[in-house]
Structure formats: structure tokens, C-alpha cells
Amino acid sequence: MIINRIVRIHILSRATGWRGLSSVSGPRVCVVGGGPAGFYTAQQLLKARQDALVDIYERLPVPFGLVRFGVAPDHPEVKNVINTFTQTAHHERCSFHGNVNVGRDVSVEELRQAYHAVVLSYGAEANRPIGIPGENLSGIFSAKDFVGWYNGIPANKELCPDLSCETAVILGQGNVALDVARILLSPLDTLKTTDITQHALKALAGSGVRRVLIIGRRGPLQIACTIKELRELVNLPNTRAEMLLSDFEGIKETLKDLPRPRKRLTDLLMKAVNGGEDKAEKSWSFRFSRSPVEVLAGADGKRAAGIRLALNKLEGSGENARAVPTDQLEDVDCGLIISSIGYKSILIDPAVPFDPRRSVVPNDMGRVQDTPGLYCSGWVKRGPTGVIATTMNDSFDTARVLLQDMETGELDLSIKKPGAQAISALLQTRGVRTVLFSDWEKINAEEERRGKPHGKPREKLLDVEEMLQIAWS
Fold first, then answer.
1. Which stretches within 206-334 are classed as H helix?
2. Which long-range contacts (CB under 8 A, 24 or more apart) does 327-334 make?
3. Does the first or last residue of the chain, that is N or C, have fewer Cβ atoms within 10 Å of its Cβ?
4. 401: burial class by Cβ within 10 Å (0-12, 13-18, 19+)?
5. pLDDT at residue 360 in the model
6. 425: Cβ–Cβ under 8 A, 6 or more apart, which residues?
7. How many CB atoms lie within 10 A of CB 190?
8. Which segments in the chain show pLDDT lower than 70?
């Protein structure tokens, strides 16, 4: 009997990530989403409350979200934050539960019953449609899916973009747009030693893309990228910038009045107008004050062969300038169109308040509207803007609000909550097996092993079933 009880306890601890802390009477917090927002929220909670237990639930078997799947492969330094997240996951009062689809495998209400607080940090996984005729033709991709293809998101492994065309058009001028442009134009030797997927590397090796146009609705003074991303594009080997001088009329005279960050960015942009290598085989350029109005089909009527743009005029000035389309149109021949106009969050559970217009969970400083004990952080809280540091600060803010509610009694900690043990028992009855952080470390080791022969830090696994097989071996 004693042996059977020990076995049952071992099975339970294996399923829940339990580390002998079931008797701890402190607050139990559940974080939904294993990306930067989720880990930063957990980190702050664990640091501030020595009695808090935090469980992180993630839909995929692998952690780190946008750091793993969104950061450009040639930006390995940005991924160093994974070391910090790993420390959080190893914390004795933190447990990671991968392969759990909240909203399908377990409801948010069930999580609320099991925890004192639930923090939604699941990011923005849906595409924003362009909203123009022809956008469903082949040859058009969202930047989210294209980035997912070269970064190894399992859902995007079959994307197979045709890169045989000479000209690619990217809609949007933020950092993701510049990442995509850089990947399309980078020398292959630059990418070979990164964690870019092998199938993307093979496709890029045979790419015919020689020219990338990066389209924006507004002007040079409203461009959304950061100076770091622009500098990398300006300094890209074997490329030259091919700007339109007309796009920069009157810009030089405004430089002295700009805030310093905008001034530096604009100054670099001006230098790039005539920059680059004269004999470069590839080119890139920004096209300003243009909005897409129609994707033009080729002779077969099925594939994109060009895009029609409306020329805009700007009303107002500075960051608040508004683009207003004119009657002037411009057609651009291209065989590849990538829409980088933003991501959006989705509603994962009908019990959660959701603003479909803004695609966020309505909240006050992270407290979800009219739902005590429910919080949000990251993109699902504020919308898909900013860099990882922005998400860090935002997540810390949510954690502070949650901690404040614990101190003031807004959250009733006198009621004992079962936390992961109740949820894991529930998942077991539904045939859902979780991936613990120790299981992820098996996947991590296998990816590193597969990358080594190619001189890469890792070769990402693309198949969820294969991930699970390795995790549970």
C-alpha cells in the first residue's frame, strides 16, 4: 500500500511539475502563454513574493514564444534572454506546462477556480488582413507566417513560398518588415550559421529575389522601424538602396526640429538615399506615402503578378500625420508580396472579455475588465507594439498591479487553491499530457545535436508529434 501511494505521488508530481510544495499556502498564480510576457510576469511575481507559486501554461510543447519564433535568426544576441527565462522556469516555485491549449483543453473559468489569479499573456497569433481585392491570390503571405516559416513555427512548415521572382514587395515599414527584407537579401553565408530552418535556407539558396520594395502609408518622418534595424539594412553586403528623391523633398529642413531619436533615424535614412555598393547585385528601397488598393493577378488569374498602390498625401505633421489616398495610382510588378501590417490577438475563451475592434482584452493597467482575479500582460493587453524590452516593462507593470491586489485584499488569499494539481488531474481525464520544462530540455538537446553537423546552434524540430515523442522518451 505504501509503495502504491509513493508511485501515485510520483506520477502526480511528474504530471504537475510538483516539487513538494503542495503544502505551501501562498498565492497560486497561473500564467497563460510561455512567451516573453508570460516569463517576465512570472519572474516579477516570484521575485516579489517568497510564498507565490506560479504555473506557466503554453499551447506548444516548446517555450519562449516570440523569442524563439519571432526574433530574426541573424539576431542571436536578442535570444540571450532565453537564459533568464530558463532560470525562471528552474525556480523551485515555478512550473512550465507545455502542450496545453487553454480554451480547448481547459477553460479559463476552470483555471480561475484552481488559482487565486490568472494572467493572460498569450500574445497575438492572428494576421491582420490587408482588406483589398486579390489578397487571396497565391504569392501573398503575411509577415507572421513568412517569419514563422524561416523560424520554425510548426504551423508554417508547409508554407513553401515561391522565391523565383525578381521583385518582392513588403507592405509595412516596421522592424518585422525590415527583418524580412534582410533575410531575403542576406548573403547565404551569413545565414548558414544561424538557427534558420534548413528548408528555408535551401529555398533562399535558390532564390531569384534581387529587389525588395518596402511600402509605407506615410512619409520618412513616420517610418516605424528602429535605427538598429535600419542600420543593418543599410550595411547589408552586396546591396544598394534605391530611393526616390521625390519622397524626401523638404525633409532636410525639418531635421533640426526633430526629437533626438527621430532625428538620428531620419539622418541615417537620408544618408542611405545615395548609399550602398554601386555594383551590388541586389537592391532595397523604401516607398513612402503609398497604400495598397489591389493585388494584380497574372495571366492565369491565380497568382499575384503585381500590386496597385494609391499615392497618399499627408494631413498633419510629425507622429500624428495621417495618410489620405489621392486619385493617383501606381502599379508595381512583383511576384512575391508580404504583408507586414501587424498581428492581432484572438479570443481564446468566450468567458474572457474581448475588444474585437482593437483585438485586445479590455483592461485597466492589466486588470481585466469586470473579471476579478483575471489579468493580462504583453500584446494581448496593449496590442502588438514595441520590442521585447517594452513587453518586459509592461509585464512587470501587470505583476505589480497583481501584487498590489494581493496586499490590499482585492484578491482573497485566505481561500486555499489547488493550482496545478487540480488542473493536471483534469487534463489527465481529458487525455492531455503536459510537457514539463525538463521534457523541453530533451527537445532542446536534440535540436542542438541536429544543428551541430551544419555549424548551426540548433536545427529546430518542426513537427509537434516528433517533439512530443522526444519529450516523453
1. 227-234, 260-272
2. 329/293, 330/290, 331/296, 331/306, 331/307, 332/167, 332/169, 332/213, 332/306, 332/307, 332/308, 333/167, 333/305, 333/306, 334/165, 334/167, 334/168, 334/169, 334/213, 334/304, 334/305, 334/306, 334/307
3. N
4. middle
5. 95
6. 12
7. 15
8. 1-24, 274-277
- Residue 154: CA count within 13 A, CB half-sphere: 14
Amino acid at 94: C
For position 1, what pLDDT does the model report? Answer: 38
Question: What does the chain come to in residues?
Answer: 473
Distance CA 381, CA 386 (A): 12
Collapsing DSSP to helix, strand or coil, 307 comes out as: strand
Give the C-alpha distances (Å, rounded to integers) separating 58 from 55, 240, 303: 10, 42, 37
pLDDT of res. 274: 65
Helical spans, DSSP H, in 166-256: 175-185, 188-192, 198-205, 227-234
Instruction: Tell me what pLDDT residue 252 has.
Output: 86
φ, ψ for residue 221 (rounded to 5)?
A: -80, -5
Task: Judge whether 45 and 405 are in contact, CB under 8 Å.
Answer: no
- The C-alpha atoms of residue 95 and residue 420 are separated, in whole angstroms, by 9
Q: What's the N-to-C CA distance of the chain in angstroms?
A: 28
pLDDT value of position 418: 96
The C-alpha cell 483575471 sits at 374
For residue 171, the SS3 value is: strand
Encoded amino acid at 412, one letter: D
Say what the pLDDT of residue 275 is.
58
Distance CA 357, CA 367 (A): 19
Instruction: Write out the three cell numbers for 26.
Output: 501562498
Amino acid in the structure at residue 346: I
Which grid cell is 445? 538537446
Closest by CA to 367, choosing from 348, 388, 381, 379, is 381
- The predicted structure's pLDDT at residue 256: 86
Q: In one letter, which amino acid is 113?
A: Q
CB 73 within 8 A of CB 114: no
3-class secondary structure for 108-151? HHHHHHHCCEEEECCCCCEECCCCCCCCCCECEEEHHHHHHHHH
Q: CA-CA distance, 372 to 97, in Å (whole number)?
A: 24
Q: How far apart are CA 310 and CA 327, in angstroms?
A: 7
Return d(Cα 175, Cα 190) in angstroms, integer: 19
